Amino acid sequence: DRVENRLFQNRYVVDVGRPHITVKPHVNPSNALVAMTRVCPAGCYSRNEQGQVEIVADGCMECGTCRVVCAQTGEIEWSYPRGGFGVLFKFG
Ligand code: SF4
């Protein structure tokens, strides 16, 4: 049973208007932040036409990768979703 198949079964509850991860306004993103457009397993990060990195946190699996990768740069604000929101894991 592949982990991807199980992840597909997770439910995600969007906390409308209260994203738990935000990218701070910036002109030029760091290499670490740009890397998130490739390594976020949920594909939450993307780059706009001006080159800034944006996030749509819906579907975030709370793996914490972006928090770790961008810890030094301070470009993102990261907190766990409120109780009852975010990903609800259904392993097993
Ligand atoms: Fe993507 Fe993981 Fe960051 Fe969520 S915590 S936005 S899944 S890298």
Structure description:
The chain is built from three helices and six strands; from the N terminus they run H-E-E-H-E-E-H-E-E. It is an alpha+beta fold. It has a single domain, classed as 2-Layer Sandwich (Alpha-Beta Plaits). A hairpin with a 5-residue loop joins strand 3 and strand 4. The site of iron/sulfur cluster (SF4) has 13 residues, from helix 3.
Calculate the mean pLDDT score and round it.
84
Unreliable residue stretches: none
Annotated CATH architecture? 2-Layer Sandwich
Helical/strand content category: alpha+beta
CATH topology: Alpha-Beta Plaits
CATH C-level class is: Alpha Beta
Counting H and I runs of at least 4 residues, what is the number of helices? 3
Largest beta sheet: strand ordering? 1-6
The number of distinct β-strands equals: 6
Distance between the termini: 10 Å
- Our count of domains comes out at 1
The shape is globular
**Ligands bound to this protein structure:** iron/sulfur cluster
Rg, nearest Å: 14 Å
Largest sheet: 2 strands, antiparallel
- Oligomer kind: single chain
Estimate the strand proportion: 15-25%
- One letter per element, helices H and strands E, the order comes to HEEHEEHEE
How helix-rich are the residues, as a percent range?
Answer: 10-25%
In short:
With 92 residues, the chain is of the alpha+beta class.
Mind sketching the topology for me?
Blueprint: H1 3-7, E1 11-13, E2 21-23, H2 31-39, E3 45-47, E4 53-55, H3 65-69, E5 76-78, E6 86-88
Antiparallel strand pairs: 1-6, 2-5, 3-4
The structure holds iron/sulfur cluster.
Iron/sulfur cluster binds at residues 21, 40-42, 44, 57, 60-66.
